[in-house]
Each structure stands twice: as C-alpha cells, then as structure tokens.
Design brief:
Elements (H helix, E strand, L loop, with lengths): L1 E7 L2 E7 L7 E6 L4 E7 L3 E5 L11 H12 L6 E8 L1 H11 L2 E5 L13 E5 L4 H9 L5 E7 L13 H13 L2 E7 L5 E2 L11 H5 L1 H5 E5 L4 H4 L19 H7 L3 E2 L8 H9 L23 H13 L6 H7 L3 H7 L7 H9 L6 H9 L23 H12 L7 H10 L2 H6 L1
Parallel strand pairs: 6-7, 8-9, 8-12, 9-10, 12-13
Antiparallel strand pairs: 1-2, 2-5, 3-4, 4-11
Length: 424
Amino acid sequence: MIINYKCENGVLELEFTPEKDDPISQQVFSTIYKTTSKVEMASNRCEIHLPSDWTIHDVHPDVFALAMISIIYPFCSSIIHLPLGVSKSFHNQVMRVMNKRVLPINENLPPRKAPSNAVPAMTYSGGIDSTAAAILLPENTHLFYFDRIIPKDGTRTLLNQEAAYYACDSMAKIGRTVHKIKTDMQYIRKPVGFNSYLTDAVPALLLADYYGFDTLANGHTLEIAYQIGHIGFKDCKETEVGHPWYRLLASIDMSYTLPTIGLSEVSTTRIVNKSPYHEIAQACSRGKVKKPCMNCYKCFRKSLLEKVIRNMSLDKPYLDNLFNIKDANKVINSHPIYFANILAYITAHYSGNHKEMLKLKKRTRGDILQVSWMDKWYPKSQEFLAQKYRNHVKKEIIKYSAPMNTNDIQTMKQSFGEEYFLKS
C-alpha cells in the first residue's frame, strides 16, 4: 500500500494506492447477525479536518504511521510505503507484531517521547459507555468526537449526529476539552465503518504532539474487550481491541488507558445514572436529542437495561413495542445472541409474565445464571491503565463497582466462555 498526503489549512487529504498483493476485499463474519459478508476497500482517499495551523510536521512520523495503519488495516499486505520515514524501532515493532514492513526507515529518527506535562486523549461518542469512561478519567482528558462527513451525492445513512453534538457541546460547557474532528474516513470501506478498533482514534493520534498526549482511552466495555458479549471470554491482549494496538501504542509512548474494559454495560450505565452527565449521554446514534430511535437493537438492549437499573416497571405496552423492533428480533433470534450477558442480567431481574420476555429469559439463561458479577469490576483489566493514571482511574472505579472476587471471575468465564458460544 502506498500512502500520500496533501495538507492545506489543517485539512489533511490522504490517498491510498493499493499494490498488486494488497487484499482490498475479504469475507468478514458479523458477530451481531451471525452472517458472513464481503468487506472491501471502496475509496482510496479521505480527508481529516484538523486545526487550521496544523501541518504534517506537528506529528511524529511514527505516530503518523500508526494512524495510517489503523485506517487501511486490513487492506494492506506486507509492505506499507509512507511519505515520512519512521524510526528503526517503530519499523521493527510493526514487523514483530504485524509482520509488515513500514517504509522508509529514517535511521536518524529517535522514537517518539511524550512531553512530561502530557495529558490523556480519548475517543468520545456521546454514548453511555464513553461518557462513563470520561467520568473515570482525569478532567484534563481531551475528548475527541469522530464527526462524520456525509457525502453530498445522495448517500443514504441512518446516522443522526444531533445527540452526539449535544453531548459534546454539553461536555464543553461543563469545562471538558472537546474536539469535533470532521472526517470521511469511514467511507474507505464498504459497508461503511471502521477497519480496526483504533480507526476512530486517528484524530487523537494525529494531534498527539500538537496538544501533547501520553495515553489513549476509549469507552469499550468488558463485552467487547474480553469478547464475553459475542465470541466468548478471551484475554484482551489477544482480541481485536488489544492486538496489535497496545504494543504499537506503547512504542509511540502513548499506551492505552482503558477505564471501562473491566466493566460490563451494567456498570457503565450505573456510573452515568449516578452522575450529572445522565441527561447528556445517549446510546442511540439514529435518534434525536433525548429521543432515541427505539427502532434498533441498541435501543432495545440499552432501554431495558436502563429501566432495570433504575427499578422501573416493564409494562406490557412497552415490552410489546420493544419486541416489535425488526432489528432487535433479527439479533435475538440468532444464536448465540449478541450481548447475551446483558440480556441475561435484564431478564434475571424480570419477574413479570410477558410471553416474549420469558422466552428471552430462558434463551439467555436469565432464569439460572448468577449475574451479580456484572455489577463489579474485573481487576485484571488494570493492566490496560497506563501507570501514570492507574491509581486515579482505579479510585474512581471503586466508587461505583467493587472488584470481582475469584468466584465472580470464574462465573463470568464459565457462563460466557468460548464453549458456550461454540455450543450455541
């Protein structure tokens, strides 16, 4: 893959030229719908709107290289040609963990070192989980919203960014530092989306030296980071959230600080509910401000969870409407169910007689499983808290969630291990 750029007034234009052996399409399995579909490189360009005085010289070449890798991964083969030479140490680390060569090598370039007064950066969506992460992180953390540019060619999208903009603006009014970075890099691939779990951090990476960052955060939860929500428990260092990114981030002196990966959606929802940010955060990215679409699986799951945590009644008309959501039915009728652990928690706390809820309770084992571990924090996840911020984040987490004990951890791994998902 050959990468070139042009930058004017802070607008970075990137061009990606595939070479003969670059795999520009592949079959990808959806853990949500349990289907396999083609994902392909649909565009060879994108733009990112950074501060008007930003230039390519405001970012260390190794950081620029990592940002580019996260955009095109997995459409690149064994060699990536960049416009800026990388350090020998970064080249070697990429080779070790990805078996790819990043060229050219600048033999005189030292590895990146974050400034002593550096602060954290975090990818922020305005949703429940990323808001919980923002609560747990130091207040000087810079929040980066991935402001999606929609093409003006009649492209249709279900995305509505109103609620996210509201969350960003509300955070800024409270005093948090928020950056809304416009970009269309999600259209690099078809279907539209991110090529890796680091793609949405590209704006923060490109501005790492402009603002001075020494750690990168996001709002991924236990369900994604340790895969208990969709494939079965696996060490985060081996999942797509961790590998190969945590090693590459460490090589640019910007290690991960992932405050919520040891917490389930149950805990992140409770954290936000107990905070002043409750009226700001909204999980749905299709609805309007304070008006979720109530027509997607995320609304189905998050709405139920919110009511259970707040001890609100689940009456028949409300449940009837939820079980009429086409997207939700598509997910809950697939096996194993995506985020089945959350539905198990919800149904374990349901004592009514709604027919569909009782069927869901049995299907997710909400009638037999021990679910209290989802109220707690998985302490092993602290290895993904940068040393500088570890004590602060742990102190904040403990305000809301006690650490899991040995029995909790065993229950989590046995209830939603790989065996369960394979049997399903």
